[in-house]
Task: structure prediction
Amino acid sequence: MRPSLFLCTVTLSLSSIFSTSLFAQEPSQPPQSIAEKTLTEKSSQPEKISSLYKDLDQDGVADKLDHCLNSLPNQKVNQFGCESDEDNDGVVDRLDQCLKTPAGISVNKFGCEGDADNDGVFDSQDQCPGTLPGVEVNKIGCRLDTDLDRDGILNEKDQCPGTPIGVTVNQYGCEPKSLVVTNIVFDTGSYVIRPDQKPILDRDISQLRTLKEHERIVITGFTDALGSERSNMKLSWNRAQATKDYLVRKFDYDASKILVLGKGETNPVASNATKAGRKQNRRISFMVMDQQIVPNEAVATLPEKMKHYNRYQE
Result:
């Protein structure tokens, strides 16, 4: 009897195990996954997503309308969420160094027009593109005419403007000469060089050629025939000396190479009977001479007997 009872018990236990195992393997409807549930909610309720991030860059323009989603903080933007660009040149005002560029003008990264030849004139206004470096230009980008007579001396330094093309000039823009005559005006009975006559004297002196080592300049004074012969002689010497002093001071000549001479009313070049003739006779001449042929009476300083000039002396 005991073995039968044991067999029955084992059979019952195995039956229970098989029964339980089979029950566990029966198909059943699985629950909806979290991922599937989330996707379903997103697709059915999109307004919930848009409510999470309305304005990422916080510029006051909703992201769905914002064309510039990464605006910098505290920058003024337009209705599209982009920084202001008043001249519409593609460079925002914050970076634009030329805020009023005309429409249609190409600009660089600073919002300014280009200047391809670097002459200081924008390309849109430059009527002479391709200017060489260092050339001074006017407001339309063209070379300033600083040498009108094309002699190589700038206008501001040229004492002889209008020199014919091809003529050799000195440092003052003048054709070098060995003899120069000036008719500067002195006050009656005076040998003081008037301020209004200095530009004329500068122009005339500038025509002298460069001295060679063995050469000298002889400055000779002349007067008209009015007044006494003795007075005119002294006056001519003093005017020659005054001119030498000016020449040395203004043009930095070696005083030892400049001699003076007075001729008074002798050697007239025109009639003393007319005003125009007398003006021509009142003159100062500069002559470059070899020192071997310099007149004996020409001296480096005013002779003692020619000092103390008095216009009223006989």
Confidence is low (pLDDT under 50) at residues 5-25. The longest strand covers residues 215-221.
